[in-house]
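Quick one, tokens below:
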């Protein structure tokens, strides 16, 4: 058996541009493979703590596919496919809840895709499915993703009445020219209309997403978008660096004729780091607290600990729908992953043919041994503030974090983290390098799987 490739040193990574990869979940679904054999869903969850679970429903439909998007979603599906999908969602939800046995959901999220792509009747059908399974969105923090062109007053009133308390909307930029560069047809007046419809329903939390690194964007124009967003006093703001990934719209344009038309220039000409610092400073000056490299929370946002206790490092997730990820401590699973329209359509078509018996089995995912569980815990903790709780690590694993992952000791001498007896926390410089540190912490096995993944 060939040895796995050695991971690059932190020093060598720090000589590269800071934007290597976004480690929003570990391991990434490109590391998933067919399991050695199907496993019964009931058995997968039998030994797990099911007292505080995250329930996630995936709606893989959009009005259009943005040029940067590599999520599992299909633009402009047929009306028949949407209706069949909602039926499958109901079936899968029933099967999953039956397999869990005694359990409690502590968080609920509707993501995609674009959940608000559904019309009012379809959204009502979705919430009815939840209520029939005794899932009450009003009893826990419940969020939903929307896009400006799919928002209207009736939908937002329905969602608020159903218990949704957090709306997240991707705007990306308030500049129409910059949005067009992202292959996104929205206009600023459409965004402002959507925000007004959301605010009219008094959702406790409105999150707005912005992107930096767009071709033609400047620090000044990025700050102008931030200022436009601040005018609406969102409870949360996310600042995302642009990544141009294979099989996305921008990725295909970049590779056409071999000319990097949308490729971001390498340092020192890449302005993303400068935009990040300027955006961060503007939000801190406006009274926002930085939670991660991307997330900023306003002083007037609801308390983050509202609702039943949930910890993403310790508690499990049940993902319902094609493309949804589920995880226990030792197994992450989902349907296959695709980006191109052809692959997403094929995977979705297969999903629509599944039976209740099929949903009761798991056959595609990634099994996490002790080392992988520790790496996941470190990535999920360290890349957000307040940081990696060393006592919580000790309670979870019965070991010391720096003994288990000696590479963490390299952070302090480089000024990327500070350590006390209780906490290992990134410094501001370390947080600016989050998209370097995440890839640095992945295992050689996961890195090899991701490198070997063949995009569909």
């Amino acid at each position: 058996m060939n040895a796995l490739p050695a991971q690059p040193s932190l020093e060598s990574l720090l000589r590269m541009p800071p934007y290597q990869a976004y480690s929003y979940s570990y391991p990434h679904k490109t590391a998933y493979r067919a399991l050695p054999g199907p496993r019964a869903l009931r058995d997968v969850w039998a030994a797990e703590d099911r007292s505080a679970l995250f329930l996630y429903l995936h709606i893989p439909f959009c009005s259009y596919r943005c040029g940067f998007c590599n999520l599992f979603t299909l633009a402009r599906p047929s009306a028949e496919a949407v209706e069949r999908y909602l039926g499958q969602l109901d079936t899968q939800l029933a099967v999953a809840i039956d397999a869990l046995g005694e359990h409690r959901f502590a968080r609920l999220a509707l993501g995609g895709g674009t959940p608000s792509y559904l019309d009012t009747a379809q959204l009502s059908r979705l919430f009815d499915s939840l209520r029939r399974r005794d899932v009450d969105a009003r009893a826990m923090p419940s969020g939903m993703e929307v896009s400006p062109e799919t928002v209207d007053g009736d939908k937002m009133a329905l969602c608020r009445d159903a218990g949704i308390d957090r709306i997240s909307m991707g705007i990306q930029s308030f500049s129409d020219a910059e949005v067009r560069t992202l292959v996104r047809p929205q206009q600023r007046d459409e965004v402002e209309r959507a925000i007004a419809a959301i605010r009219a329903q008094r959702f406790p939390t409105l999150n707005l997403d912005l992107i930096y690194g767009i071709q033609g964007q400047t620090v000044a124009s990025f700050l102008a978008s931030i200022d436009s967003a601040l005018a609406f006093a969102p409870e949360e703001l996310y600042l995302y660096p642009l990544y141009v990934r294979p099989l996305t719209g921008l990725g295909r344009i970049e590779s056409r004729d071999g000319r990097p038309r949308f490729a971001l220039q390498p340092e020192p000409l890449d302005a993303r780091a400068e935009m990040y610092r300027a955006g961060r400073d503007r939000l801190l000056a406006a009274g926002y607290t930085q939670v991660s490299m991307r997330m900023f929370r306003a002083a007037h946002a609801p308390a983050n600990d509202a609702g039943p206790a949930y910890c993403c490092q310790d508690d499990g997730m049940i993902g319902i729908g094609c493309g949804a990820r589920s995880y226990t401590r030792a197994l992450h699973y989902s349907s296959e992953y695709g980006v191109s329209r052809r692959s997403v359509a094929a995977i979705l078509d297969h999903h629509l043919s599944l039976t209740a018996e099929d949903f009761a089995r798991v056959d595609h995912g990634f099994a996490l041994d002790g080392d992988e569980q520790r790496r996941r815990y470190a990535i999920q903790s360290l890349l957000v503030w307040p940081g990696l709780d060393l006592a919580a690590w000790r309670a979870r694993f019965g070991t010391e974090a720096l003994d288990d992952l000696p590479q963490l000791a390299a952070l302090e001498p480089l000024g990327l983290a500070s350590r006390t007896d209780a906490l290992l926390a990134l410094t501001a410089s370390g947080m600016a390098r989050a998209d370097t540190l995440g890839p640095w912490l992945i295992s050689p096995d996961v890195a090899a799987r991701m490198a070997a993944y063949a995009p569909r």
